[in-house]
Amino acid sequence: MKKGIIFLALACFLLAAGCTGTGDEQTVLKVVPAGSLVGPFEDLETEFEASHPGVDVQVEAHGSIQCIRQVTDLHRDIDLVVVADEALIPDLMYRPVEGGEGNYTDAYTTFATNRVVIAFTNQSRYADEISSENWHDVLSRPDVVVGISNPMLDAAGYRALMVTILAERYYRDDGLFDAVLGDHLRPNVTVEEKDGVTSITLPEVLKQETGKVRIRDGSIFLLSLVETGGVDYAFEYLSVAKEHGLRYVTLPPEIDLGSAEHQEGYRDVVVNLGFQRFGSIGSDRVGTPIVYAATVPNSAPHPDLAREFMDSMVAEFGKGYEAWPAPLPA
What we know:
This protein is α/β, with parallel strands linked by helices.
């Protein structure tokens, strides 16, 4: 009788140990999205984990260029890369793996669009005055502090430069770019025009200089500055402004990088990134309508699961939630 009790107790102990030990290790799916997708990806992560017991989706947001560098420069085991500029994937990832075989990736999926707005709060200087018609005059004022994300790391950053140059043309104000951004960055950015195309060349390391312009690594990291009054106005995506309840003014479609109809005009602005290592692999960022894209790197540890997550993501964005980037037109 005692032997039976001991055997039963031992069996229960082993069963309990099995429930809490290594037998229940989860599959970790590592996803690196652009910072403007942080909110939507919280929902996607929760839903995917609920429908896939045993899967732990780990989301780590960065600026879009930094998302790609997690794979190409840091050689991390990333399952899914999601960026706010579809052109970054072929430019930076359709190339041979350093010291390995094949490319970093060979395909990508587009799934959403966005547009640039000027975000602010009630505490921003001239908040009761700014409008979609006079925003460029307000941001040009010396006492107004403007926030952008780092164009070396984030698509929203080089798009802020593009939008300002496009605005200079649209409003026929030759000093607009310098007044809002150009005169307040060090080392100096170089602006040249040739054959109708304006090129902005950035230095290797870009810093704000006079205090009028403040830079953060990604557009999402500007939010705390806007909300606490560290900057008066920030170049943000429409979805980010909506999601965080910020006030914002919309820009004409000719300059907000959100209209396929005006894409030829957008292409008249080019930003050349200052990173030397980008010299032969896509340092020129050409103005295009904002389109989000995702790719499963060829080195992904769980490619099938990553594609399943990507399919779920595409389906959810296709539903067109109010504060998410807009789905691609049908």
